[in-house]
Amino acid sequence: MKSALHETLEVHELAAFKTICLTTSKTMRALVSDPELKDIMQQDVELTHVQLQELNSVLANYVQAGVAP
């Protein structure tokens, strides 16, 4: 996969944003009392975790290709 440096930086920025979202969802979930909302937030945590793994894989490919910042 051939990518420019700015694309690598954008993926890194997206991963940082998703990490903040994950932290927020995990923290706020502990404060929620409504079971349905807790379930929705748990689904968000699980989905975000998968997305972060995918972004990590993309970044690892960039590193192997020599496009890492």
TrEMBL record:
Higher taxonomy: Bacteria, Bacillati, Bacillota, Bacilli, Bacillales
The name this protein goes by in its record: Ferritin-like metal-binding protein YciE
Organism: Paenibacillus phyllosphaerae
Domain of life: Bacteria
